[in-house]
Write a structure and sequence with these properties.
InterPro entries: SET_dom, SET_dom_sf, SET_SmydA-8. GO terms for molecular function: N-methyltransferase activity; protein methyltransferase activity; S-adenosylmethionine-dependent methyltransferase activity. This is (Mediterranean fruit fly) hypothetical protein. By secondary structure, the protein is α+β, with helices and mostly antiparallel strands. Among the domains are: about 35-85 and about 255-295, SET domain (Beta-clip-like, Beta Complex); about 85-250, no CATH class; about 425-538. The protein is about 45% helix and about 10% strand. It contains 17 helices and 14 strands. Helix 12 runs antiparallel to helix 13 (about 410-425). The strands form five sheets. A four-stranded antiparallel beta sheet has the order 11-12-13-14. A three-stranded antiparallel beta sheet has the order 3-9-8, with no helix packed on it. Strands 4-6-5 form a three-stranded antiparallel beta sheet. The structure holds S-adenosylmethionine (SAM).
């Protein structure tokens, strides 16, 4: 790929990652709150008080263990806050500090831990020699086997760098066996899907060669059995949450959050504390007593074919939730394509719970095989990823080109619209007060299009809604003020718009102030609250 395209792709990926972080997978319980004992999951050092918990653990042949509401829960109720049992870098070729998970560079000028020579953000890193960061035990192991220097030497070899970072969390869990045996034992009770993984030769061989053999041969862990390493790999893949704020990126295992079952339209939302890496789990809408408490392991802005593949590959199950079962994805139609033959019909899967089912037009006899659909989606996704996330004409060009191929609510179209909602009004040349009325109207329309779908797929108190409502308020306000100045709006319409601005700000504030202090989302919540005060709204 040419360098510029690669750079743009990276930028767009960063933007998409941000979006994905905003939709992140799983979350969890206060250390003094777990009811694990009643289900034979022994809490490390735990003193449990099950009566106070808003949930209990149940078990089913399909879901395994999962959480259920003990009483009616209101939207926004805090279910749990818990610190990680284990934390480590994500599997990525982007180097991060082992103490705080912020990006670092693999070059000679980068600060390295004095003892083990692994790149760190700096000597003052708050995670140095801390349980949530670079521990003394880890440092000794890396130093003894000269792994820090080996990582720096691997600079430019993406697969190798990725592998070094992939191994860190697995090593950290193995080290717990000696210095925190109760935590280690607790982690080992998590689902690893070892038998299913073993049956997948390609997957098993990947872990055998890239993890088991490398740890035993190069990382000095020759006394650890292959069986234990494989089990930990499975546990990490099945149960980890990807977290991070303000550019930090890490993956964590949490004591109770791992028990949440998946649903593609979940009833909880979670975030994480940038200081402690604790996960904060809340209900995003009301949940009835005895109803399952769910979160999404997948990205909201992906179609059923891709979401189900993703969950099957990493979590080893085929999702059959209401969204996946419905060819129109809860009425959003966010996987449908425009029929290339009759140009008026929509092409959808004939049986969305069968990955290999044929796709068919609802108006004519046009059909497509699933492999062709995947090829098409990959090609268009690649195209989107190569557009710089700040390139407004590029993103609008994408919309123009692909709205004829993909349906208007297609997730790739929505992904481009999300980027546009975010950048219109925020970047040089397109700041809100300097934007033309046409561009203000476009921003407003993109926000409305996006919100209409997110209201269905991520309803309630979800970060994505909070962010878009904030963007929407700005666009409506600006349009209304401009029209007022030119006499292009009646007083009653102006007042109606202001009422909508207030509703957007109130909801956005209520959602975003739930985010931890020190995050950009929380700051936006503070700005929404300030705007309401300025408008004289209590
Ligand atoms: C993070 S674990 C959840 C806890 C797990 N059920 C247990 O007993 O340890 C994820 C696993 O739970 C099961 N699971 C979660 N949600 C599911 C769903 N919607 N359908 C089927 N299986 C699900 C799958 O086996 C999946 O790999």
């Amino acid at each position: 790929m040419p360098a510029k395209k690669q750079k743009n792709k990276k930028k767009h990926q960063q933007h998409q990652q941000q979006l994905q972080q905003q939709q992140q997978q799983q979350s969890t319980t206060n250390s003094s709150q777990s009811s694990m004992e009643s289900n034979n999951i022994n809490e490390p050092g735990g003193d449990s008080s099950p009566k106070q918990l808003p949930y209990r653990i149940e078990k089913s042949s399909v879901l395994g263990r999962y959480l259920v509401a003990n009483r009616d829960l209101k939207a926004g109720e805090l279910l749990t806050i818990e610190e990680p049992l284990a934390i480590g870098p994500c599997v990525s070729a982007d180097a991060v500090c082992l103490g705080c998970y912020m990006p670092v560079e693999l070059k000679e000028t980068q600060f390295c831990c004095e003892a083990c020579k692994w790149p760190m953000c700096g000597p003052q890193c708050g995670g140095l020699h801390q349980p949530t960061g670079h521990t003394v035990q880890e440092c000794e192991l890396l130093r003894e086997h000269k792994l820090g220097a080996a990582l720096t030497a691997a600079c430019g070899k993406a697969d190798l760098v990725k592998n070094y970072y992939e191994l860190i969390l697995i090593v950290r869990i193995l080290l717990l066996k000696h210095h925190a045996p109760d935590k280690y034992a607790y982690i080992l009770q998590m689902e690893s899907h070892t038998e299913l993984r073993k049956a997948n030769t390609e997957l098993w061989q990947h872990y055998e060669q890239n993890v088991v053999q490398r740890l035993q041969r190069d990382w000095g862990l020759d006394t650890v059995s292959a069986e234990d390493i494989h089990a930990i790999c499975g546990i990490v893949d099945v149960n980890c949450f990807e977290i991070g704020q303000n550019l930090a990126k890490a993956r964590c295992l949490y004591k109770s959050a791992f028990l949440l079952a998946h649903d593609c339209c979940p009833n909880t939302a979670h975030t994480d504390d940038p200081q402690s890496y604790a996960i904060i789990l809340r209900t995003s809408r009301s949940i009835s007593k005895d109803e399952g408490i769910t979160l999404s392991y997948a990205y909201t802005l992906q179609g059923t074919l891709k979401r189900r593949d993703f969950m099957h590959a990493g979590k080893l199950f085929w999702c059959c939730c209401d969204r996946c079962s419905d060819p129109k994805e809860l009425g959003t139609d966010c996987s449908a394509l425009v029929c290339p033959k009759c140009k008026t019909g929509s092409v959808r899967s004939t049986a969305p719970l069968n990955q290999e089912a044929e796709w068919r037009c609802d108006r004519c006899d046009y059909t497509l095989q699933y492999k062709e659909i995947l090829k098409l989606l990959d090609a268009i996704n690649y195209n989107l990823e190569t557009i710089d996330a700040h390139n407004i004409p590029g993103l609008e060009g994408f919309l123009k080109k692909y709205e004829r191929v993909l349906g208007p609510n297609h997730y790739l179209i929505l992904s481009a619209k999300y980027s546009l909602c975010q950048i219109y009004g925020r970047i040089e040349g397109y700041l809100l007060h300097t934007m033309s009325i046409e561009n203000v109207e476009k921003k407003e329309q993109y926000c409305r299009d996006f919100l209409r779908i997110i209201n269905v797929l991520e309803p309630g108190l979800t970060r994505l809604r909070g962010l878009i409502l904030y963007e929407l308020h700005g666009a409506i306000m600006m349009r209304s003020q401009r029209l007022m100045m030119t006499g292009g709006i009646s007083e009653s319409n102006f007042k109606r718009n202001i009422k909508e601005v207030i509703r957007c700000l109130q909801e956005s504030k209520d959602i975003l102030l739930l985010e931890p202090e020190g995050t950009s989302e929380h700051e936006m919540g503070v700005a929404a609250a300030g705007a309401l005060v300025e408008m004289g709204v209590k």
